[in-house]
Amino acid sequence: MIKQDYLIRMILEIITKIAEAILGKKKIKPQSWVEYDALTRQILGLTTEELRTTSAEEILSVYEKDLDRWGKTELAAMTLLKIAEETEDDILLKQKFRQDGLKLLKCVQSDSGTFSLQRTAIISLLESEDIK
Question: Following CA atoms 95, 98, 104, 107 in sequence, which dihedral angle do they give, to the nearest 10 degrees?
Answer without folding.
Answer: -90
